[in-house]
Specification:
Blueprint: H1 8-15, E1 22-25, H2 32-40, E2 45-49, E3 65-68, H3 75-81, E4 87-93, H4 98-102, H5 128-134, H6 137-148, H7 153-166, H8 172-180, H9 188-204, H10 206-220, E5 221-231, H11 234-246, E6 265-267, H12 277-282, E7 290-296
Parallel strand pairs: 1-2, 1-4, 2-3, 4-5
Antiparallel strand pairs: 5-7, 6-7
């Protein structure tokens, strides 16, 4: 399977699919969520985004479906181009697809030999290889602290600097061997996942992309349109939570004269929804998933 959709039932139910509605799957991947949305539509429309060329082959041949092979940070422009504004609902399943992890050459996995790539869009120039071998030590420390929440980032970067001073670091295996020397015994996999997460976020500008995307959703959603976001680490989840709560990316709470919070969103989920035990057992990727849904006022 290219990718098993996370919290499929919950997403579809909370989006409240209308047969004649217009919906966006901002992260198409293997098309699992899209397939279920389409099954609920009659004369409605579904527009799906994915920047990964590998996802193109999964696109549906259906008159109700439009595939956009671009990053969802351009959602407003492309929806206007296709004359599909306003929409009734948007779904974004953030993070890496199972397919991307399972192909070692893409460089997303801590297991198996692969190049230090980590690009979701192969058309972009920046790779993890460039970051590891050319970023200054201070810039790398900041990156690992901010995006990987790695406490001993200075130690890790020191080891990286020692190695690249002698020869170029060229593969995921080489990076894993370096990083393992800095990990706490018994927690190596968690540490490696943090290291790879930090690099992946930097390569794909994930936090900037998410901020761009969120800031455009109000413009393209109709009244009572819903936005559902599945995040996989605290940085993403915090941004989504604060945006839904306050209506701005800074998370700045603004109130009216009577003390009521001024936000353009109504919370559909009061707190993040997590996958059930059965789903986690069947799909390990669901373990860290957090689903939040809000409705435009």
């Amino acid at each position: 399977m290219y990718h098993r959709p996370v919290m499929l039932t919950e997403c579809i139910e909370l989006l409240g699919i209308k047969p004649g509605g217009v919906y966006v799957d901002a992260t198409f991947g293997g098309g699992g969520h899209s397939r279920e949305i389409l099954s609920r539509l009659e004369n409605g429309r579904l527009i799906a985004f994915d920047q990964d060329e590998d996802a193109v082959k999964n696109a549906f041949d259906d008159p109700r479906f439009t595939f956009v092979n671009h990053n969802f940070r351009f959602i407003r422009n492309f929806l206007r181009l296709h004359k599909q504004v306003p929409v009734d609902g948007i779904l974004a399943d953030l993070g890496v697809s199972s397919h991307q992890i399972d192909v070692p050459e893409r460089g997303f996995s801590i297991r198996g030999e692969g190049s230090l790539d980590m690009r979701m869009d192969q058309r972009k120039p920046l790779t993890a290889h460039t970051i590891i071998n050319t970023y200054t030590e201070e810039k790398l420390i900041e990156l690992f602290r901010n995006y990987g929440e790695i406490i001993n980032a200075r130690k890790l970067v020191s080891r990286i600097a020692e190695t690249r001073g002698e020869k170029e670091i060229g593969s995921t295996t080489e990076l894993v061997l370096i990083a393992k020397t800095c990990a706490e015994r018994g927690k190596e996999n968690k540490y490696l996942a943090q290291v790879f997460q930090a690099l992946r976020i930097e390569v794909n500008q994930e936090m900037e992309v998410l901020a761009d995307f969120l800031s455009q959703c109000l413009d393209v959603l109709g009244s009572q349109g819903r936005l559902a976001v599945i995040s996989y680490h605290s940085l993403e989840d915090r941004l989504v939570k604060n945006y839904f709560r306050t209506g701005n990316l800074e998370g700045e709470l603004k109130k009216d004269f009577y003390g009521n919070v001024l936000s353009p969103w109504n919370m559909v989920t009061r707190k993040a929804i997590v996958a059930g035990d059965k789903e986690v057992a069947e799909n390990g990727r669901a373990r860290s998933a957090r689903l939040r849904v809000a409705e435009k006022k």
